[in-house]
Amino acid sequence: MLFSTSCSKQEEITSYTVPKKATGSSPIESDNTAAPAKEVRMLAAILPGSPQNWFFKMTGTPDQVKAEFEPFVEFLKSITMKAGKPAWKLPENWVQEPGSSMRFATLKVKDSQPAVELSVIPLPASDSLETDLLSNINRWRGQVGLSNITAKEIKAASDTPALDTELFTLKDQDQSLTVVSLKGLMAGNPMSRAPFASGMRVGAAKPTPSPAPKPATSSALKYDTPKGWQPGRSGGMRKAGFNITAGDETGEVTVIDLAKAANPLLLNINRWRGQVGLKDISEADLPKNSEQLKVGDLEATYVKLIGPESAKPRKAILGAILYRNELAWFVKFTGPAKLAEQEETNFKQFLQSIRFE
Questions:
Q1: What is the value of pTM for the model shown?
Q2: For the residues of 39-79, what is the DSSP string, one character each?
Q3: For 242, which DSSP code?
Q4: Residue pLDDT, tens place only, 107-135
């Protein structure tokens, strides 16, 4: 891992304060359980239609779902619409069960332990396919602890299926499916999660909430913002967000706090590595692939992750993880490799300006 820091002059900075507030967030949407987060992979697809869209979703352990990636893709390619309903060719090691409630069908992988299943659910389409795609894909990403993407990124999705490609499309003359392959952390029962965006569930009874785990508290977060960084989306898990633009390239910086107990260091760094097309590393490899930076009286583990030269586009992540009390803080730049190189000095200065008061 190469770390480069070049800067011609000290950038002007602006100070911001984030008010103190309670937080108990985990890397996934709360399911009212204190179960520890586990590493999962999710394969999911949206087939647009009228008057309803069709959702296909499989979630399980990374090894289980990896083994089903090619059958999943072939299954999607086999789908045809007949009288407004999907028909398909079932992979050899899958079985189909009747639908129930909102499910049109449930497909299961034979002899899988724990059981791996794929749900098929229709939901009313909105007036905007772009909105449906963006809201549902970002919901899925949130379920496994990944940050949101933009409509522009969805439009630029690859048309080549690959396990480590987070977003791609499958197209033929009659239809186009948008597919995600996401690896991250999820708490509770992965199959219990709905495959659609909140607010789109029609006719479902409102669940009775269970007592939530006692939230941790965080002190007021303060930081200095480098010149040129524009305020971005924040709220919820995002304690701060910034947009960076240079020419025709754009990047995003986020600051997120999550539960420390559910966020081991190596697992999250390997999740980031996968997002830019790099292979996982071991605990023994971590010191030579990371850097320790002082953040006040704390120490952050910093990584500079540049995707393979062959990747188009070539993605990059500048990321840092620091632990304070019961929280894990994630500071992350996501964007093109060239922009990451240009902004690394600013990013490090921003990271090291963070303080809790």
A1: 0.52
A2: EEEEEEEEE--SSEEEEEEEEE-HHHHHHTHHHHHHHHHT-
A3: E
A4: 999 988 888 999 999 888 887 888 889 98
